[in-house]
């Protein structure tokens, strides 16, 4: 039984915005090392769902569209594969909205303008960026034969575009976590677009924080 397991000496500080890394810690508690993919990585430590695991010896791929964002990753997370890129199923050039609070940056025009007009947050720049698909990015950067233990997606409103851009037959993480700002309680999760989509490719929700839903591959061996 889980409660009979002896405690393990691990780092206990959470770096995630809503404690997502502690949920992942529980899911992978029996796995000493692994591999992650972080889409919308933002910063190597602040609001990071992966830095806790990097400190434990895990490695992975960090991706963010913000120009210059990978300089900090190269300094603080040199063991990772750090990629400056936008990810979407739309191949046309998109407008990237930049806020003073960089955690809010993203490609969703409606969400960005709402934040600017309703909440008084200033858009300080707009940059055209042509995205790649998640499948293309993984084909190029994922080491051959490497299984993805978890994929985290937080791209401020275009998360479904990232999910749809993957090749789910080739690249199947054990766990996928997705931000969904429309979900605030467990009874809303079934209606989430990410739930509907991920169920269609063989995943089921198993946990959530305030605005993040965790999905487990139905044949995954983890004990979450």
Descriptive terms for the model:
224 residues; alpha/beta; Rossmann fold; 7-stranded mixed sheet; disordered N terminus
Shape: globular
Strand content: 15-25%
The CATH topology of one domain comes to Rossmann fold
Number of helices: 7
Question: What is the overall pLDDT average?
Answer: 88
Please outline the major beta sheet.
7 strands, mixed
DSSP, total strands = 9
Low-confidence stretches: 1-9
Helix content: 10-25%
CATH architecture name of one domain: 3-Layer(aba) Sandwich
CATH homology superfamily name of one domain: Vaccinia Virus protein VP39
Spell the H/E element sequence.
Answer: HEHEHEEHEHEHEHEE
Question: Structural class, from secondary structure content?
Answer: alpha/beta
Task: Give the secondary structure arrangement, pairings included.
Layout lengths: L19 H8 L7 E5 L11 H5 L3 E6 L5 H7 L4 E4 L9 E6 L9 H10 L4 E7 L4 H8 L8 E4 L5 H6 L10 E5 L13 H8 L2 E6 L3 E6 L7
Parallel strand pairs: 1-2, 1-6, 2-3, 6-7
Antiparallel strand pairs: 4-5, 7-9, 8-9
Explain briefly what this protein structure is:
By secondary structure, this protein is α/β, with parallel strands linked by helices. The chain has helices at residues 20-27, 51-55, 70-76, 109-118, 134-141, 159-164, 193-200; strands at residues 35-39, 59-64, 81-84, 94-99, 123-129, 150-153, 175-179, 203-208, 212-217.
């Amino acid at each position: 039984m889980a409660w009979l397991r002896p405690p393990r000496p691990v780092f206990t500080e959470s770096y995630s915005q809503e404690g997502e890394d502690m949920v992942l810690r529980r899911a992978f508690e029996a796995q000493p090392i692994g591999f992650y993919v972080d889409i919308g990585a933002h910063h190597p430590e602040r609001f990071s769902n992966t830095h806790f695991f990097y400190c434990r010896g895990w490695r992975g791929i960090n991706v963010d569209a913000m120009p210059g964002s990978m300089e900090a990753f190269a300094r603080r997370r040199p063991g990772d594969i750090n990629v400056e890129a936008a990810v979407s199923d739309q191949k046309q050039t998109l407008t990237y909205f930049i806020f003073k609070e960089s955690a809010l940056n993203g490609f969703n025009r409606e969400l960005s303008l709402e934040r600017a007009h309703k909440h008084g947050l200033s858009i300080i720049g707009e940059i055209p960026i042509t995205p790649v698909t998640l499948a293309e990015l993984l084909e190029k950067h994922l080491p051959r034969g490497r299984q993805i233990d978890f994929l985290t997606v937080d791209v401020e409103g275009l998360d479904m575009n990232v999910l749809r851009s993957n090749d789910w037959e080739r690249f199947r993480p054990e766990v996928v976590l997705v931000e969904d700002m429309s979900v605030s309680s467990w009874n809303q999760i079934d209606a989430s677009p990410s739930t509907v989509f991920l169920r269609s490719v063989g995943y089921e929700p198993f946990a959530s924080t305030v605005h993040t839903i965790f999905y487990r591959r139905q044949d995954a061996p983890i004990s979450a």
